[in-house]
Amino acid sequence: MISLSPNDRRMLDGSHGAAAALAMRILVRCADVMGAERLVDIESAHIDGCLYHGQTSLDFVERLVAGGGKVVVPTTLNVGSVDLIHPELFRGGEALRQDAERLMQAHLELGCESTFTCAPYQLKHRPRLGQQIAWAESNAIVFANSVLGARTNRYGDFIDLCAALTGRAPYCGLHLPENRLGQHLFDVVDFPSDPDGRDIWYAALGLWVGRHAGASIPVITGLPADTREDELKALGAAAASSGAIALFHAVGLTPEAASLETACGGRPPSHTMTVTAADLRTMRDSLNQARPGDALAAVSVGTPHFSLEECARLEALLARQPGPLAVDFYVNTSRYILWELEANGAAARLRQAGVEFVTDTCTYLTPIMRDTRGVVMTNSGKWAHYAPANIGVQVAYGSLHDCVRSARLGKVAFDGQ
To answer: How far apart, in Å, are the Cα atoms of 293 and each of 57, 375, 411?
Structure first.
């Protein structure tokens, strides 16, 4: 039996309106199924349900709007199905466009922020160490838990919004400190150190960890001491795509893993696996469907959404390899990152170099790319994992350096080939 606070009960009986009552009923039922004994206050929410999957998703949100629903904590929105900043990029049917735009608008009517990004941790206000939150979107969840040390379970469509409308979440799972201890050790040896191609190996490691960790919490040793936040982002996003990872610890790098002993709570790991450079190459090869010299249709990067640092790195690579791009080069990013790029002049320079920005959505989710009949190259493990099934493309999986070089040539080219 769930222990409810007096305010929980007032929401259940409709004192806060029909929408809050519906949200609380769903939360209480979910908490019971999850084995929670009570609910916990949350300080923020991130909502995944503004991506249009059919009439049901729209019906649910419209019911909350009609019931007078308003979020009671700061609430960000994940990507939608259209780029509201660049509507001309959408290549789907008009009915889909209208329903997708209405779904995004309905979430705004509930009081959510118009962020429309899968990387809400790149915004100015992001969760703190130990803060209780209710986030959806797999890469955002694993980043918040792992890199920021905030506490959230893997919330999905509808329950994330119910948490935002009530300010409450089931107190179980990764909300509890004792459930956040590492269990499965991945000892990385001879991690590739080439600064031009290092990004691809973090994603490959994430894919490896996701496939081998099962339901356990992975602990990773052996990563370079200068590992950047964006590289941890790539690792986590890939791990959450290939497995059910919501939290990982990188010893010496993430806030709950000052040491292996700290990450595991003083207990020995239940499993230990050595990961070699050969293992990472095998994982990379498993997602790479192209050979050097294959004709290239496009390049797509920014899954999760590109950060300011990644945009700066792309600009530097484009400057090092001058000349026109032979194919479309899409950069998926948030509208907030794009506004900063506009303000500092980088957006104009990148556009001049041939980059096309996509905001509010992502190229593997919605019909945006002009040409998908050939190979599309990416440096994103998540994009490479999902795009073949989602949009029917053949993927070349390489580093950002590879992506720039291949875009210049109009054909697939990997480092050293």
So the answer is: 43, 11, 5
Class of domain 6-178: alpha beta
Architecture in CATH for domain 288-409: 2-Layer Sandwich (3.30)
Residue partners of 361: CB distance under 8 A and separation at least 6: 51, 79, 80, 81, 82, 83, 116, 332, 368
Pairing of strands 39-41, 168-170: antiparallel
- pLDDT exceeds 60 at position 416: no
The radius of gyration computed from the CA coordinates of the chain, to the nearest angstrom, equals 21
**What length is written for the chain?**
417
Reported as a single tens digit per residue, the pLDDT across 288-317 is 999 999 999 999 999 999 999 999 999 999
DSSP 242-257: HS--S--EETTTSTT-
* pLDDT tens-digit series, residues 88-112: 999 999 999 999 999 999 999 999 9
Q: Which residue has the tokens 């905030």?
A: 150
Q: What is the pTM of this model?
A: 0.96
Mapped onto helix, strand or coil, the DSSP state of residue 318 is: helix
Q: How far apart are CA 307 and CA 4, in angstroms?
A: 41
